[in-house]
Design brief:
By secondary structure, the protein is α+β, with helices and mostly antiparallel strands. The protein contains 14 helices and 23 strands. Bound molecules: uridine-diphosphate-2(N-acetylglucosaminyl) butyric acid (EPU).
Amino acid sequence: MKKIVIDGNKELTGTINICGAKNSAVALIPAAILCDEEVKIYNVPNISDRDALLNILEHLNCKTELIDDYLRINLEGLENKLIPEDLSNKLRASYYFMGALLSKYKFVEMYFPGGCNIGARPINLHLKGFEMLGAKVTIDGNKYTISADELKGARIYLDIASVGATVNLMLAAVKAKGITIISNAAREPEITNVATFLNNMGAKITGVGTSEIKIEGVEYLHKAIIDVIPDRIEAGTYAIIGAALGRDLVINNVIEEHLEALLSKLKDMGVSIKSEKGKLIINKAKNLKPINIKTLVFPGFPTDLGQPITTLLTQAQGMSLFEETIYENRFGHIKYLNKMGANINANTASSTAIVMGPTKLKGCDVVATDLRAGAAMVIAGLIAEGTTRIDEIKHILRGYENIIEKLQSVGANIRIEEI
Ligand code: EPU
């Protein structure tokens, strides 16, 4: 069994390069199949979610070429086939094949997606939107069959500004007849990245980044290229690490506006952050101040950084309040932080946690219960005295590119061991 082993409490200095955003790349790859020719995607992160999507493309008979972070996808031989459960359940984003295949073939058959166990995560809004575009949805256990004689533009209001539903409906509507309006659309930067890619292919999408997106259906999508935007959650994770342990820790390749909510909170905690073009330079604060955090949809504080920042709150001088509003079950890390010596009182019914700091963290055996809980454990291990061993590291490797090498390069004592 592979574990991440960290000997903590080391100052970190040097430069960490941020890779392409996981949550963009995992939508851009399925979006690529809408193209009728060939696409090139640059800055693709080297994470296991990427590989899971490439396996689905291979299953659909797509020819792909991956050289480092460059991915070429040729769509000529694409075949619309049932996506089996052992491929769909490897990650959440397999659900983007629903919108993309439905759009292209008016028919898709696949199993329910996987992903982190952080709540119920239904896809009712995706399905309701497909139906509004004229599709029929049949559910048989975990198997979804979605078909349409014709997809017609519609006005779709989302009850929740869901990232997944916004992207999936954009994919489904891009070749539909007429105009689709998605209102109360999510505004996350990854959605803009996907719309730019589709527009580069000849789609007609406007309003992305606002809560009303307009899609005018087109018949043909030609070849296109796109760069995956920098991963704001990876950057945020390293910024939090810098706030705890950094000495002029440079985080390179960031879009600062995507990180505003986090950077504002770190500054409130007393962390020194300098920004230069595309770079953040972070120094740990002597006395971290406690703060209150509530996760929200973009541009609010991202739920994906809620778990990582809880670890930092254990080092603040006093009581911090944390509230998660997007998912019901994002507290898997708390038990293990407390095992390491933190003083966190979580109320899962109200999705709130009171963090009393500062507490000394001591290395011990912990578990990455999901991707961002895993990041919270890595941060805790880096701060702690002694040795931390993290189990279930597959969750971490799904979403953090070369995390071991990146942290080693700035002075961390971290490695993967077969235990
Ligand atoms: N929701 C519904 N019905 C739906 C869709 C969503 O009730 O049909 C609920 C969800 O259960 C959740 C909330 O709406 O409570 C928000 O879900 P959303 O659809 O926005 O999330 P997602 O598309 O499933 C993506 C990211 C997540 C990230 C969220 C929010 C991908 C593959 N995943 O998930 O990333 O937390 O948006 O920003 O893009 C992560 O990277 O660790 C991660 C979980």
